[in-house]
Amino acid sequence: MSSLDAPTRSTPATPGSVHPGAGRRVLPTLNEDGTRRWIRPKPSHGAWWRRRRVVAYALMAIFFAAPHLRLFGKPIFLMDLPRRQFTLMGYTFLPTDTLLFMLVLASGVIGIFLVTALAGRAWCGWACPQTVYLEFLFRPIGRWFDGGYAQSRNLDKKGAWFTPRRIAKYVTFFLMSLFVSHTMLAFFVGTDQLYTWMVHSPAAHPAAFAFVVAFTGIVWFNFTYFREQTCLIVCPYGRWQSALIDRQSTIVAYDYTRGEPRAHAAGAKGAPRDPNAGDCIDCSACVQTCPTGIDIRNGLQMECVHCTQCIDACDEIMTRVGKPTGLIRYASQDAIAGAPRKLLSLRTVLYPLVLFVLLGGLATALLQKAPADFTVLRGIGAPFTQEADGRVANQVRVKLTNRRSQGTAYTITLDSLIGGDLRAEDVTVAIPENPFAVPAGATRTTSLFILLPSRAFVGGEKWMTLTVTDTEGWHETVRWRLLGPATATGATPGETK
To answer: What pTM value is reported for the model?
Structure first.
């Protein structure tokens, strides 16, 4: 009764079938004769629905406002693909931050796994964009255009897909999809670039225009036609749940020990209800309100997204017939079966531990991350050249990445060159640009040219230190080896950093 592959019982026909010959359904969205079963869930405006509505509207507000919000002078979220930068909560990840980016992604995945292990598919029912927009934006507007829940079903039965009201609904869905796609594009290019594109011809930015057209079509198709099939067919999350939860995980569950055997509120021809019957009166309210078209009484199923609509519907019926609420509720499979509650399990220990390690590593890496990346590279071509006067020339390339939110100038200084038998007039250093200006979030490379007499090289090498300092006081020093001609102590050494 509580397993993922619980057998499907024969259930009363539910509203929403559009084919007059469609009989018992074999899948939530498929009738026995192969026709599409259009699911028109009857909304149940109970306590859980009101809680989910607050969460849904808050998430929608965050989604639409996030591209416009700034933290430390940067967007709170920006996936800047042309510049290969990812900004999250004011911190910009660059292509060299592969480890940091992977820690963020891994923390998010493990976080969802932990939520699933503790509270089942709470992500699907409460925070997934598919559920949030479908159940609290597109479906309510669709019911308003159709004239309500009952009228939506009547139009389906008549096959009236292109009435004036439904055409107006499709147009409204398109405008909403267009707004969602522009908001999504802002997450990839930023609001400033988006505003510029919006007031210019599409010919000036064909790739961005093509993205908006394609994404708008996908969103419109998804929320107008495909709908709950995205959760049932496309999304793999339901198939993962058998590996992510156990019998101690909290899920939306039907209390079969209390509800069975089922019997209607009144017996045949007004006869009294069977006194041995369970609390379930077999009204199918839980089935009619389910957005994926399943019967929660058949046990835990892949299609259940834990939206809690069946809880609200059943609680209302139980209140009407004078029975305790909670016949369908948040509970674990073991709790329903009467097994003792275990506070700890492998999942509830392992997932938090892994998440703690990942978040700790991410926090440590962020705190230790310098405001600039400083890399020293050897010159392109020969490791050194010897001038006509016998001096040895080394080209050293300095690569700087500015992580600050404003442009910064960097000063390059060299040390450890003068000393021993080397005097200041023996050393020539040419730095074409010093201080070296780097725009915010950009990476630039400059070259240094160092000329030393051949006697400065012992064993074909001369060590020095290279220091970079910015206008804010940050500095970093790198010890670097210059290369020169071979001596009696050995051959010219290979290149190292």
So the answer is: 0.74
